[in-house]
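Lay summary. Proteins are chains of building blocks that fold into shapes, and those shapes determine what they do. In this project we predict the shape from the chain. Here is one chain we studied, written as its sequence of building blocks.
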Amino acid sequence: MMNQRDKEILENLKKFRVLDRDQMIKLHFLKNKDSIQSCNKVMKRLVRDGLVAVDHSARPYNYFPVPSIRKDSTKIPHYKEIADFYLSLYAYKKPSEFEVEFKTGTKGSIEPDIFMRWYGTSFFVEIQRNVYTKKVMDAKMKRYMDYYKGDVWKENLKFFPHIWIITPHTYKIESEPLKVYQTRNVCDFYEKILKKSPSH
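And here is the predicted shape, written in a compact code that computers can read:
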């Protein structure tokens, strides 16, 4: 029989698609005296019971939900960056909502890596590992603008989410009336923007 922590582990694996052992520890085992040994023991049991898949060739091991993406998928580093982003948010405040690979249901529309609510504000988040060309970025922002001009988002949201791009490169973006933030990481956003907000 699964306990509450087992259920939460499976939920997070389903949410993030993949988590390595160190990420798993930060999410579920920090309160344990020997967090590494405790994590290894629990994950070994979940793998044995067929509830979790594991890639032993990765260091630290990568864990997946069942069924899972391919263990050699090129998207694994990206999914793990999304999990690291979540952990960085959690260090300040746990998001009240966090959806990976948000789908609008409309072909050719926006495809943010994350939709989330954090500190009472809704965000579409883009985690960028590579620098985009101006053409690609302009096309991405046009999709956001087209989505904003449509009415679909109004069915579930009172205000259009802010767009937050995690990127080492700052782009010149024409985004009015959309609110777009560009930061290297969560810490930069918190210190430069959120901390100075009157509502914070």
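What the prediction tells us: Helices lie at 4-16, 21-28, 35-48, 76-90, 134-149, 186-194.
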